[in-house]
Write a structure and sequence with these properties.
alpha+beta; PmbA/TldD fold; 2 domains; 6-stranded antiparallel β-sheet; 10 helices; about 40% strand; disordered N terminus
Length: about 450
């Protein structure tokens, strides 16, 4: 465990963080200086082959100083919070900034801002001990050992952190947060079955470690000895994790500049963008909201722009795109800031309810190895993983070999038959605070079979 700075390696309070920002500003000789300060503690346990493999904890800090002379700027980072180190980082960033090329999109600093209070720090998560993590892991390990035919592998990590930003024009923001992320894969001894489950929340009390283990092990057994099904277009039931793997990609393409310059799926034929047009099923509403109890995100972005509830798609209609400060000024629009959360509203049905209402379809636990095929339509290819099943007459009847698919979240969201409950996700490729529902949709495009378990 490493310890740095005046806080003795612990998380910095708001007052301590502000004092460091003020020191950097005071010692700066640049036209403008921006400061970002992150402190965190993190504990983890990893297990595989039904036994613990590693465990540990880290305490660290990172201070970033960006100095600017007109449109020239440069950043220096350090994890030493002593006065000498702060002065050195300020001086080094100034030397580098003078050598940097002009940034044609440089923007003036923000002044003081008002931020909505968001409480995403929970003592239950911050105080989680090595003993607590071991007990959670042992639930899965003991269940797998008792089963006799299952091997469990997982990773549990809890983080408590503070993030502060400030500048030489009076802007200062501070946020404390915690998070616990637990992912678990169970494999059957014969090598043919694999099941996965996970949980993620700011509050450890919301993590059901036993439920995660039960789900992963049950899926591993259910997915044994999969059979091949001819690829093609099928009705699909995507669990929330699989929905998030695909639908979260929309955020990567929602930049207003890309649309205005003709480089986006949201380009309007003849010019402009599709804001105000219906682009998906009317049951789809996607928004960002740091204060949503399922999300609990940071209420400002890394420039210090305040973030509150922002609706991107409402009842199928594209309501707005993401505007940077530079592009908003150029287009005479309002900057949105960079959202820190992403949620698609859901319905009231469970995955089991969606299965019961399906005559014939394919149930998918999650997706992986997603790669872009066509940016104009957000078309991606990827593979199913850790539990793919045939559903017939409202019941799971067979375990299926995994598929490769070619699909777009926009196509998926235009083919919805039913929505399930929205759940917080734990393992999307993009990461972040994400909430998605399960979805039943028609004509999902499975293109070939995969040998992977």
């Amino acid at each position: 465990m490493r310890e740095h700075g005046s806080a003795n390696g612990a998380l910095l309070t708001r007052e301590q963080a502000q004092a460091i920002v003020e020191k950097a500003v005071k010692w700066s000789k640049a036209d403008a200086v921006d400061v970002q300060l992150n402190t965190y503690t993190q504990g983890n346990i990893r297990f595989a082959d039904n036994q613990v493999s590693t465990a540990g904890a880290t305490t660290d800090a990172q201070l970033g100083i960006q100095s600017a002379f007109g449109p020239k700027h440069a950043v220096v980072t350090t994890n030493d919070l002593s006065d000498e180190a702060i002065k050195r980082a300020v001086e080094q960033s100034e030397r580098l900034a003078r050598l940097a090329p002009d940034d044609p999109e440089s923007m003036p600093q923000l002044g003081a801002q008002q931020y909505a209070p968001v409480s995403s720090y929970f003592d239950s998560s911050a105080a989680l001990t090595a003993d607590d993590r071991a007990k959670a892991a042992l639930i899965a390990l003991e269940m797998a050992r008792q089963a006799g035919d299952v091997k469990a592998a997982g990773y549990l990590v809890n983080t408590a952190g503070t993030l502060a930003i400030g500048n030489s024009t009076g802007m200062f923001a501070y946020h404390r947060s915690t998070n616990v992320n637990y992912t678990l894969t169970a494999r059957t001894a014969d090598g043919t079955g694999s099941g996965w489950a996970a949980a993620d929340h700011a509050d450890w009390a919301q993590i059901d470690a036993r439920g995660v283990a039960e789900t992963a092990i049950a899926k591993a057994r259910l997915s044994q000895k999969p059979v091949a099904l001819e690829p093609g277009r099928y009705t699909v039931i995507l669990e929330p994790q699989a929905v998030g793997d695909l639908v979260q990609l929309i955020a990567n393409y929602a930049d207003a500049r890309s649309a205005d310059e003709g480089r986006s799926p949201f380009v309007k034929q003849g010019g402009g963008n599709k804001v105000g047009e219906k682009i998906v099923d009317e049951r789809v509403t996607i928004f960002s909201d740091p204060s949503d109890p399922q999300l609990l995100g940071r209420p400002w972005d890394f420039e210090g722009m305040p973030l509150d509830r922002q609706v991107w798609i409402e009842k199928g209609v594209l309501k707005q795109l993401i505007y940077s400060r530079f592009w908003a000024k150029k287009q005479n629009k309002t900057a949105t800031g960079g959202p820190s959360t992403f949620k698609m509203a859901g319905g009231t049905q469970s995955v089991e309810d969606l299965i019961k209402g399906t005559t014939r379809g394919i149930l998918v636990t999650r997706l992986w190895y997603l790669r872009e095929v066509d940016p104009r339509t957000i078309l991606y290819t990827g593979l199913t993983r850790d539990g793919t099943f045939l559903v017939e007459n409202g019941k799971i009847t067979k375990s299926l070999r995994n598929f490769r698919f070619n699909e777009s979240p926009l196509f998926l969201l235009n083919n919805i038959e039913a929505l399930g409950r929205a759940e917080r996700l734990a393992g999307t490729e993009q990461g972040g605070n994400v909430v998605m529902p399960s979805i039943k949709a028609r004509d999902f495009n499975f293109t070939s079979l995969s040998e992977a378990v």
